[in-house]
Design goal:
Elements: H1 2-14, E1 42-55, E2 61-74, E3 79-92, E4 95-100, E5 103-109, H2 111-118, E6 129-139, E7 154-156, E8 159-164, E9 178-189, E10 195-206, E11 215-224, E12 229-240, E13 249-261, E14 264-273, E15 297-308, E16 317-325, E17 335-338, E18 343-346, E19 352-357, E20 360-367, E21 377-381, E22 386-388, E23 391-393, E24 401-409, E25 419-421, E26 430-431, E27 437-442, E28 445-452, E29 459-465, E30 470-472, E31 475-477, E32 484-492, E33 502-507, E34 517-518, E35 525-530, E36 533-540, E37 547-553, E38 558-560, E39 563-565, E40 571-573, H3 591-603, E41 609-614, H4 621-641, E42 649-653, H5 666-672, E43 674-679
Parallel strand pairs: 4-8, 16-22, 16-23, 24-30, 24-31, 32-38, 32-39, 41-42
Antiparallel strand pairs: 1-2, 1-15, 2-3, 3-4, 3-5, 5-6, 6-9, 7-8, 9-10, 10-11, 11-12, 12-13, 13-14, 14-15, 16-19, 17-18, 17-20, 20-21, 24-27, 25-26, 25-28, 28-29, 32-35, 33-34, 33-36, 36-37, 40-43, 41-43
């Protein structure tokens, strides 16, 4: 007997090393089963323990315990097989019984998972609802319950007990074949902490001659999926049909499951009986359905482990957060860089960003012009989980800049005393000296200068001063004289067709206002007579992006300035851009075409564009969509590195959704693999 006891104890503790996620050997809670199947190729090793102990009025300690073992394996993502058996023990006073209970075979089929696998775009509700069925058959052990001996037969830890096999407080088996099944329903509700609801209902057929022993089973479960642990509660029960014996029971089981790694869990719970029960002494009645003699309470413990023979496809996780000014807490437009992934994502105007990447450990940092780059942050991205990474950027301390220069008469070159003001700042006005020299210390940044002197045309200049920089800006102002002539054409940038447009002249500061002129409908030519000075000349046509240029006009001269406008929403295919096969790496032979794109954007500084990536139909839709996004991002980064403002660009991948030619031929596929510019609103 001592040897058998030691073997049982050794099996008990060794089982903690490798076990499966649930007490029944499949996905779910303790006894309530999920309608989802395990992933394909997943193997479970099952171990669980439930027990009860109490002291009766006669001061005789008694108790029951079930130790469950088994294996589970998923042949596919929607079909799994499980086999479980139990080693049972009873104690009452000086009597001890132990032995195997029934062995059960389960086959779980998840049709909703099959629908997701077969269908490329299943109905949306299938991502929140799962249905399943689980038939089973139960086989009895080789021996039942023998006659209980009347004499003490062995000892444990020095105490003498009467031993037998098959049960004392209950029958370990009724030595009959049972079979049945249950329906499964699982509902998932999203949120920061996902909520999952399970409902089970089934029927058990007993092969016994006594009438009315078949049973119905039911279970209800609710779980909260935190990242490392899951609290859950379940209500489970079973009831015989048309039976004179009220030997069924309903239990409330609050439990807590801890996740130690991807395939290992530890579960502990408490079960409280909610209904009264009556036990039958009829030896073939089958009083052994998991709860034994249905005690008032039970303790449940489980350790779980699994192994994936088929490595599942990794699903991307999300990295998201916000970048703010450390002092003001205001959101900033900034760049989030993943150095190890060679990826960059820009925040929106409020500082928010979001990007999907494969599960891994990686580093990232935030940067913005005028701010200190943050230290690298190390994060671990998990499948289908959101990882929050917020950054606070500290503004760089700026060294004072110096602005100096000389004001002269443009015609004679003589120095002049003039008033110099800074209209868009809080700087005070200054005057140049008799020698025409001016000087001012200012905070680094961009400034608009306005220069005025009586009898001269006002002039404006835009100046950019860097940290600690001395900027020398000499200013030549023109004596006020007769008007000048400005003429030119307004054309469509792509077709070069003339446009019906309005050309306006906005004085930079103090000049006489000029009435706008329209182009000739037949020739597209405009012409205006304006006072000399500095103007913002703007061409505007219906359906096109307006273009404006700051221009300086001297008296008695004729100026020709043509405008080429980009049509709103126009798509421009950038020919000659090539990538490494299956990657977003730009080939060197593409640089010429990309530099032409840079030139186009610099010629039209008011234009914002969407960089659209397109692929052919070869490969999976999801892969093509991701590849097109990565290639569009690569073009965006190239343009930003060549001096194009990030605020003017938006990258988006369309995959194979917008072909311009047939994908049935190689030539058509080549046309569909392209990068387009789509002109957006200003």
């Amino acid at each position: 007997m001592k040897k058998e006891f030691l073997i049982l104890a050794g099996f008990f503790f060794s089982s903690f090393l490798y076990s499966s996620p649930t007490f029944t050997g499949t996905k779910g809670l303790n006894y309530v089963v999920s309608a989802e199947s395990e992933r394909k190729g997943h193997l479970n090793y099952i171990f669980s323990l439930c027990g009860y102990g109490n002291e009766s009025k006669e001061q005789a300690w008694h108790g029951v315990a079930n130790v469950n073992f088994g294996l589970g394996f998923s042949f596919t993502d929607y079909l799994s097989f499980n086999v479980t058996t139990s080693y049972l023990g009873d104690k009452f006073a000086e009597h001890i019984s132990y032995g195997f209970g029934d062995t059960k075979l389960y086959l779980k089929f998840a049709p909703t998972t099959l629908a997701k696998v077969v269908s490329g775009s299943p109905p949306t509700f299938l991502y929140y609802v799962d249905f399943g069925i689980e038939p089973f058959v139960s086989f009895p052990p080789t021996r039942g319950r023998p006659t209980i001996p009347s004499t003490k037969s062995d000892t444990i830890l020095g105490f003498v007990y009467i031993f037998n096999h098959g049960g004392i407080n209950r029958y370990f088996t009724d030595k009959n074949l049972h079979y049945g099944g249950r329906g499964l329903l699982t509902l998932r509700f999203g949120g920061d902490v996902p909520l999952v609801f399970h409902l089970n209902g089934g029927y058990i057929f007993h092969q016994q001659k006594i009438q009315g022993v078949n049973e119905i089973t039911y279970g209800l479960g609710l779980e909260l999926n935190y990242p490392q642990f899951t609290p859950f509660v379940e209500i489970v029960g079973r009831q015989r049909i048309n039976s004179d014996y009220n030997d069924g029971a309903i239990y409330l089981n609050p439990s807590l499951r801890f996740e130690t790694d991807k395939n290992s869990w530890f579960t502990i719970g408490f079960g409280l009986r909610l209904t009264d029960t009556t036990i039958s002494d009829y030896p073939n009645y089958g009083i052994q359905p998991g709860w034994g003699t249905n005690p008032n309470w039970v303790i449940n413990i489980g350790v779980s482990h699994g192994f994936d023979f088929v490595r599942p496809l990794l699903k991307k996780g999300t990295v998201a957060g916000r970048v703010v000014d450390k002092k003001t807490k205001v959101g900033l437009r900034a760049l989030i860089t993943f150095p190890e992934l060679d990826r960059v994502v820009a925040t929106d105007s409020d500082g928010y960003y979001s990007i999907d990447i494969l599960p891994m450990k990686t580093i990232l940092h935030a940067s913005k012009e005028g701010y200190e780059v943050t230290e690298d942050m190390t994060i671990e991205v998990r499948e289908e989980e959101k990882t929050l990474c917020n950054f606070e950027l500290k503004e760089k301390r700026k060294a004072m800049a110096t602005l100096t220069g000389k004001v002269t008469n443009k015609i004679t070159g003589k120095p002049l005393i003039a008033l110099i003001s800074f209209p868009e700042s809080n700087l005070s006005d200054i005057k140049s000296s008799a020698s025409g020299v001016y000087r001012v210390d200012i905070t680094p940044g961009t400034y608009l200068l306005s220069i005025k002197r009586e009898g001269y045309l006002p002039q404006t200049k835009t100046v950019v001063c860097g940290d600690g920089e001395t900027q020398v800006i000499d200013i030549e102002i023109v004596p006020a004289k007769r008007r000048c002539i400005v003429t030119g054409k307004v054309l469509d940038h792509t077709t070069k067709k003339r446009l019906d447009a309005e050309v306006s002249f906005e004085p930079a500061s103090g000049e006489e206002k000029v009435k706008p002129v329209r182009t000739d409908k037949e020739t597209g030519i405009y012409k205006a007579s304006i006072p000399p000075g500095t103007y913002i000349v703007k061409a505007d046509a219906e359906g096109y992006i307006p273009e404006a240029e700051p221009l300086v006009f001297e008296p008695e001269k004729t100026y020709v300035y043509d405008f080429t406008l980009l049509k709103k929403g126009e798509k421009i295919i950038l020919k000659g851009i090539y990538f490494d096969s299956g990657k977003a790496t730009i080939k060197p032979e593409s640089y010429s075409a990309l530099d032409n794109a840079v030139k186009l954007l610099k010629e039209h500084p008011n234009v914002k564009v969407e960089i659209a990536g397109h692929t052919d139909s070869v490969g999976k839709d999801s892969y093509n969509l991701g590849l097109s996004q990565d290639r569009a991002d690569a073009v965006l980064i190239y343009l930003v590195n060549r001096g194009i403002s990030r605020d003017r660009l938006r990258a988006r991948g369309y995959g194979e959704t917008s072909p311009i030619a047939s994908n049935r031929t190689s030539a058509g596929q080549a046309k569909n693999r392209r990068i387009e510019f789509q002109i957006l609103e200003k």
